[in-house]
Amino acid sequence: MSATAKTRARGSVPVYKRRRRRLYAAAVVVVAAVAGVSAWAATSGGSGSPLPDFTITTSQGTVANSDSIIESNPALAGTIPARLHWVPFDAGVTAVAEMRSGTIQSISGVGNPPATEAIGDGTGIVVVLAQSFDDDSLLVPASITSSAQLAGKSVGVLVGSSEDYELRGWLALEHLTGSVKIVGMGSEQAVAAAYLAHAVDAAYVYGGYAAAVEAKGAHPLTNAEQIAKLGVPGINVVAVSENLVKNNPALVQKYVCAEVQATRLFTGSQGARYLAQSAKVQGAAGNQIVAATKAYPFIPLSQQLYWLGSAKGDLSAPIVKAYTQTGQFLVGQGRLPAVPSAATVAAHVDPTFVKNALSGAC
Asked: What are residue 58's DSSP bridge partners?
């Protein structure tokens, strides 16, 4: 081999290696391009514009719900075309105030009084899903076996709450208004403690507080789900910003589709797995969440259009009647100057999104 040939052999790269390097370089360019497209898609939804921020309040504790499942399931969360932000749910009144200010766009699990108060004072909320009833029971001593025996007795309840509204509504149905003393307290813990201390004769409480009262011999005379079926429903709902419904109905639809799918997941045959998966976002042990959530009175998907109505503006929808009744309760408490009309309430309830989701339009 000549000196020139030796020099070329040492200083140059064989043709097949040069080709391979070009292929590697091309592959790197392709990967970089794909990564760039993925990053663009993640922030724009493929439309060329950034995804909107979407802030959702959700409850924590031992009872999960559809939003807990979405938050703990990245694949499901990814079907919502927005940058999702999750804020712990503290109180319905506070959440409604934050929606009024534009800080949040959805409230998960808000009860009758905050939702009705929002409608009554002009806050732009739209109810899009009926999640659950309350889980409270009216617990009484063993000596009381009928509603008539409550006459002359006192009942403790969380003041100004859905439970307060439910209890008063039930007492009216039982013709006990005025003959039973309602003692409003600042927490359900205080209600349970008052019963155990014999400061009240009965207690309207839920969960662990109810268990503590029952452990001392009390038994349920009725409960929130039964009261709801009598025509005084306390319904925990998903409500979204009216501005969001007007400006981005496609986002609201995808969100409700995810809500429906999440409900199917945690109420289905593999529900325990999805509920346990939500433990981190719920801030509780998985086994507690599974047991507590399965026992909670969630509203089945098959009943959504019954409670919310068949279309927006349906004056016959039970939730419209419930919010009108709640308006009367709030006026009596001085929290609203006037009861919102059925037409006003119905304008803030839109079953269209859940109807589409249930029909497979996702």
From this structure: 88
Q: Please state the domain count of the chain.
A: 3
Whether residue 61 is found in the same domain as residue 147:
no
**DSSP alpha helices (H): ranges in 206-341?**
207-214, 224-229, 242-247, 249-267, 271-277, 279-282, 286-294, 304-308, 318-332
Pairing relationship of beta strands 219-223 and 154-158 according to DSSP bridges? unpaired
Residues 171 and 257 in one domain: no
Tell whether the model's pLDDT for residue 46 goes beyond 70.
no
* Integer Cα distance of 164 and 227 in angstroms: 12
**Could you tell me if 349 and 319 lie in one domain?**
yes
> Is the same domain home to 117 and 252?
yes
Q: What is the pLDDT of residue 48?
A: 60
Point out the domain boundary residue: 200, 229, 258: 229
Q: Which long-range contacts (CB under 8 A, 24 or more apart) does 282-290 make?
A: 282/60, 282/61, 282/62, 282/64, 282/68, 283/60, 283/61, 284/60, 284/61, 284/62, 288/62, 289/62, 289/63, 289/64
The predicted model scores a pTM of 0.81
Q: What is the CA radius of gyration of the chain?
A: 28
Which CATH number do you get for residue 200?
3.40.190.10
- Sequence-distant (6+) residues with CB within 8 A of 108 are 56, 57, 58, 59, 65, 66, 67, 89, 131, 238
- Residues 188, 330, single domain; the answer is no
Cβ(212)–Cβ(139) below 8 Å: no
What is the rounded distance in angstroms from the CA atom of residue 90 to the CA atom of residue 76? 25
Residue range(s) defining the domain that contains residue 144: 137-229
What is the tens place of the pLDDT at every residue in 170-210? 999 999 999 999 999 999 999 999 999 999 999 999 888 89
CB-count exposure of residue 159 (10 Å: 0-12, 13-18, 19+): middle
